[in-house]
Amino acid sequence: RDYLLSPAPDSILNIVDATNIERNLYLTTQLLELGKPTVIALNMMDALKKSGAKINVQKLADKLGVEIVETQALYGKGIAEAAAKATEIANSKTAPKISKFSEDVEKAIADVEAILPTTVSENLKRWFAIKLIERDQKVTAKLFLSKEDSARIEEIVKALESARESDSESIITDERYNYIATILDGVLQKSKAGLTTSDKVDR
Questions:
Q1: Cα–Cα dist 140/148, whole Å
Q2: Cβ partners under 8 Å of residue 123, min gap 6
Q3: Whole-number Å distance between alpha carbons of 78 and 52
Q4: Could you tell me which of 184, 178, 131, 167 has the C-alpha nearest to residue 21?
Q5: Per-residue pLDDT averaged across 173-194, rounded?
Q6: Chain-wide mean pLDDT for the chain?
Q7: How large is the greatest C-alpha to C-alpha distance in the chain, in angstroms?
Q8: Residue 133 contacts by C-beta under 8 Å, 6 or more apart in sequence?
């Protein structure tokens, strides 16, 4: 995480399991908040198709604002293409689309962003604000916030928790999955064959 936050990586290659795309896109939403050019390697597409499910890859790419390369890592298909695409976009400085949450959560994020120190770069303000709302201790330690600023942020978080009657981490988790649901609407067509073996084990 520290490396991804640094200026060092020019682009990100995010490998996503197509057969478990809802869960896999959770990390993707966090990576996109870093604002770096990103390529998604949509892996296990062969297994997805065998299950009878379908993903509209172009529509998914448009909704996320990233390039997507279909891969089958087990057979070595698409891997070189995905790596080449990540190299190609490294100098593009094209930022991906950022997730949008509910109005009250977005207001809390904006309020926390306004308190962040000037040392935080503009493209990372949202990422840091969300982490502070989640009370991520490692991120908090990095920022060396004053007692006054820490207290103001805690007030914002507590107000959100009180309104939602939930803890802040759960609120952000729910918001991410709700956002993923909107992304996959019209993109993912699930199999009519019923639950997969993985779904049955999960249950």
A1: 14
A2: 34, 35, 95
A3: 21
A4: 184
A5: 90
A6: 92
A7: 56
A8: 108, 109, 112, 153, 156, 157, 160, 168, 171, 172
Total residues found in the chain within this entry:
203
pLDDT tens across 45-57, in order?
888 888 889 999 9
Please report, as a single letter, which amino acid is at residue 20.
N
Helix (H, G, I), strand (E, B) or coil at 9: coil
Residue 194 has pLDDT above 80, yes or no: no
Task: Examine the pLDDT at 120 and tell me if it is beyond 90.
Answer: yes
- Residue 189's SS3 state is strand
Q: What is the pLDDT at residue 202?
A: 83
pLDDT tens for 135-144 read 999 999 999 9
92: left (phi over 0), alpha (psi -120 to 50) or beta: alpha
Instruction: Characterise 71 by phi-psi region: left (phi > 0), alpha (psi -120 to 50), beta (else).
Output: beta
- Rounded distance, CA 203 to CA 194, Å? 13
CA-nearest of 18, 21, 10 to 73 is 18
pTM of the predicted protein model: 0.88
Could you give the angle at the alpha carbon of 175 between the alpha carbons of 171 and 181, nearest 5°?
A: 145
Contact 202, 195 (CB under 8 A): no
Q: Where are the alpha helices (DSSP H) in 33-146?
A: 45-50, 57-64, 79-89, 103-113, 125-133, 137-143
Question: What SS3 state is found at 132?
Answer: helix
